[in-house]
Design a protein that fits this description.
single chain; alpha+beta; Endonuclease III, domain 1; Nucleoside Triphosphate Pyrophosphohydrolase; 2 domains; 5-stranded mixed β-sheet
């Protein structure tokens, strides 16, 4: 253990990044940082963490906030279920009367998985629980030459057992931070710095020429295309928005009126789609102002092929059930997918 943790800790003391969530033992702050950094690079997550803590300095303030306010602050980070779960879990914490202190209690919070619970428990309360994320999987899979796919239950369990066995009970927080930082900066997915690695002499992957192969995965996620035509309907002062409520991407975010089709279509085909015909019937005298080219937006399991069509209406806008009329000057109060926000920034200078 010392032959690995000793050099690892020396490396960490020298190379660790100065990050605000590492300078605190407040579990609420640590929790916020861990949720933000799921699927998010530190460079992007840093500013979101600072803004989130400034806006909601306590878990009580987060729990009491309207969901729309939470979603608006999260806008642009993606994976919006994280924000919804964070909000729900904050209410759980408030109901408990204090932030839970054990791994099992933290794990019971909405949206908190094995890794996040272990990270919070060790960083805030010194609970000797190994936190296993993608960086940790990569470090131990390469160092010990573990070739069981890490996206299988057996592979994850194998990594977890190794990580737990190496954990020094009295230094759980530093150990977890060090391994993750080592994976993020030294033992990277591409072009790892093997020639200056303090553990190179023990690395099975390096000795057997398998650094590029490990860790193994059993399969790749199939990415599905979606074809979305958005209607920007406005009268120069107000526009129409709709809140997504289906169990799909962007749940509880606002979007423009949408017509989704099974394949890519142009304007002439769109204008014949029954959903569009119904909209057009509600917009007498509407002036078609043109369309964007296809905008490609990549999500984790979806590639969105999106076109925006602008229609300007003279006078009052129709407002079908489920839609809201939003003054252009108040658009900043609504949480939008980044794709739509970027389009509206160009159109109205938001």
């Amino acid at each position: 253990m010392d032959e690995i943790c000793g050099p690892l800790f020396e490396w960490y003391d020298k190379h660790k990044r100065d990050l605000p969530w590492r300078a605190t033992r407040v579990p609420y702050y640590i929790w916020i940082s861990e949720v933000i950094l799921q699927q998010t690079r530190v460079a992007q997550g840093y500013d979101y963490f600072v803004r989130f803590i400034e806006h909601f300095p306590t878990v009580e303030e987060l729990a009491a906030a309207p969901e729309d306010e939470v979603m608006r602050l999260w806008q642009g980070l993606g994976y919006y279920s994280r924000a919804r779960n964070l909000h729900a879990a904050a209410k759980q914490v408030v109901a408990l009367g204090e932030f839970p202190r054990t791994y099992e209690q933290i794990r019971a919070l909405k949206g908190v998985g094995d890794y996040t619970a272990a990270a919070i428990a060790s960083f805030a309360f010194d609970v000797p629980k190994a936190a296993v994320d993608g960086n940790v999987c990569r470090v131990w899979a390469r160092l010990f030459g573990l070739d069981t796919p890490i996206d299988t239950a057996r592979g994850k369990q194998q990594i977890t057992e190794v990580a737990q066995a190496l954990l020094p009970v009295a230094q759980a927080a530093k150990y977890n931070q060090a391994v993750m930082e080592f994976g993020a900066l030294q033992c990277t997915p591409q072009s790892p710095k093997c020639d200056e690695c303090p553990l190179a002499h023990k690395c099975v992957a390096l000795a057997t020429g398998r650094v590029g192969e490990l860790p193994m995965k059993s399969h790749k996620t199939k990415v599905m295309p979606r074809y979305m035509s958005y209607l920007y309907i406005h009268n120069g002062e107000e526009m129409l928005l709709h809140k997504r409520t289906a169990n799909d991407i962007w749940l509880n975010l606002y979007e423009l009126p949408l017509i989704e089709t099974a394949s890519a279509i142009g304007a002439e085909e769109l204008f014949c789609v029954p959903e569009f015909v119904a909209w057009h019937a509600m917009l007498p005298g509407a002036v078609y102002k043109g369309a964007t080219g296809t905008v490609k937006h990549v999500l984790s399991h979806r590639v969105l092929h999106t076109v925006f069509y602008e229609f300007e209406v003279e006078g009052a806008l129709p407002c079908p059930e489920g839609f809201v009329m939003v003054p252009l000057e108040e658009l900043g109060r609504y949480a939008l997918p980044r794709l739509i926000e970027k389009y509206l920034e160009e159109k109205i200078g938001r």
